[in-house]
Amino acid sequence: MTAQRDPHDELHARHRAVLPDWLALYYDRPLEITHGEGRHVWDAEGNRYLDFFGGILTTMTAHALPEVAKAVSEQAGRILHTSTLYLDRPMVELAERVASLSGIPDARVFFTTSGTEANDTALLLATAYRQSNQVLAMRNSYHGRSFSAVGITGNRSWSPSSLSPFHTLYVHGGVRTRGPFAGLDDAGFTAACVADLEDVLGQTHGNVAALIAEPVQGVGGFTSPPDGLYAAFREVLQQHGILWISDEVQTGWGRTGDHFWGWQAHDAAGPPDVLTFAKGIGNGMSVGGVVARAEVMNCLDANSISTFGGSPVTMAAGNANLAYLLEHDLQGNARRVGGLLLERLRAASAGLGVVREVRGRGLMIGIELVLPGTDAPSPEAASIVLETAREGGLLVGKGGGHATASVLRITPPLSLTVAEAEAGATVLERALRRAEIELGGAVAP
Q1: Dihedral of CA 243/146/284/92: which sign?
Q2: Phi/psi class of residue 131: alpha, beta or left (left: φ > 0; alpha: ψ in -120 to 50)?
Q3: What one-character DSSP code corresponds to residue 92?
Q4: Tens-of-pLDDT digits for all 445 residues of the chain?
Q5: Cβ distance 112 to 309 under 8 Å?
Q6: Could you tell me if 204 and 212 are in contact, meaning their C-beta atoms sit under 8 angstroms apart?
Q7: How many angstroms separate the CA atoms of 213 and 194, rounded?
């Protein structure tokens, strides 16, 4: 008799046979998620998990949110696709709301299918507007997986090629607690980074197109500068006519709690010229986009359309999801519950040598892990915590700079409750203590 093959193992083998080797899978025994509800998901074997990663910050409000499901179903029953060659009411309605919320005057909105494509578009606009391929980017940054986005990514883990259509110059400021300026106070750190920016500009040909920056670096491990740094950068940029692109793919829609957009922590010199968004707005549907001042958005002198950007179905999802987020003040919930979760995780990490720093704001929290007793990043510790948390019914993500995925990324849906935050923190505390023990650290009773 032929033995029955485990359905999970069979699916994993099929995945490996037809998909790229570089397509990463979490966990020693990869997870097949079959359905979700609220802040929880279930796998194919019936196990239930509290989701603290939200499909890489994409399930913004809740899994299977009835309002979004209803909007998608009703729109799909009418028509699935038309393209931007025709008037699209859901697209116009969502563009109006996003333009109004963006803070950018005389804003125009272009929809894409992803954050990568949104950043591609922003770079196209900036280089066309400024007639230059020189771009400033932040060290430790990540902006997508396309050829152009990889060309400005300052994180070698996500840069498979040194070839690029841009002349990219990297500046300091995205990482507060590591690097040559880490020992300075916030004012000194900002002044040093501004001086570095001015020095870099002195090495260029004088016609830089734009600075692109994540207000909180996502894949890089949820690092961020002191509030106001990009405002100080903006003053320098404006002297040279250089555009500021704020990559809000991960920080947008109120996730940081204190602000609706990440750039608003740096608003003393005004809003960015260009803003990119994606992920959470679609709550799992493929929605991205760019907001820009009209003169920048309209600078292209060639035809351009989007076959799938602005699809009636994805726009219906975006409209319903945004309405839910605003009506239920999920930004406020991210601030309140995120603040409690952050303090709970700091308390849980106290005295653990494996934890270097717990950082973040709102429901965008990072836990940086090191070898106990050192300052050396520990991807092994992150793997131990990921596996142990899964055993305890909790899903989290990981990231980090310098080719080390040593930072836990905690980004649950913005409707997270206080009880769920406490439950997740309890699982994480046990997982962190296990990592401490396995890596040879001392754990207090």
Answers
A1: positive
A2: left
A3: H
A4: 456 788 899 999 999 999 999 999 999 999 999 999 999 999 999 999 999 999 999 999 999 999 999 999 999 999 999 999 999 999 999 999 999 999 999 999 999 999 999 999 999 999 999 999 999 999 999 999 888 888 888 887 777 777 788 899 999 999 999 999 999 999 999 999 999 999 999 988 789 999 999 999 999 999 999 999 999 999 999 999 999 999 999 999 999 999 999 999 999 999 999 999 999 999 999 999 999 999 999 999 988 899 999 999 999 999 999 999 999 999 999 999 999 999 999 999 999 999 999 999 999 999 999 999 899 999 999 999 999 999 999 999 999 987 789 999 999 999 999 999 999 999 999 999 999 999 987 665 5
A5: yes
A6: no
A7: 14
Contact by Cβ (8 Å): 91, 316: no
Contacts (Cβ under 8 Å, ≥6 apart) of 313: 72, 75, 76, 80, 81, 285
Query: How many whole angstroms separate alpha carbon 286 and alpha carbon 309?
Result: 9
Supply angle C-alpha 71, 144, 312, rounded to 5. 20
Token representation of residue 62: 């809740």
| DSSP category for residue 21 | T
> Phi, psi at residue 37, to the nearest 5°?
-160, 130
> Measuring CA to CA, how many Å separate 378 from each of 142, 356, 411?
20, 10, 21
37-41 long-range contacts, CB within 8 A, separation 24+: 37/62, 37/63, 37/64, 38/62, 38/63, 38/64, 38/413, 38/415, 39/63, 39/412, 39/413, 39/415, 39/416, 39/417, 39/420, 41/395
- Per DSSP, the residues of 344-374 read HHHHHHTT-TTEEEEEEETTEEEEEEB-TTS
Could you tell me the two tokens for 126? 């900036």
Handedness of CA 328, 273, 265, 286 (dihedral sign): positive
* Alpha-helix residue ranges (DSSP H) falling in 241-329: 294-297, 312-327
pTM comes to 0.95
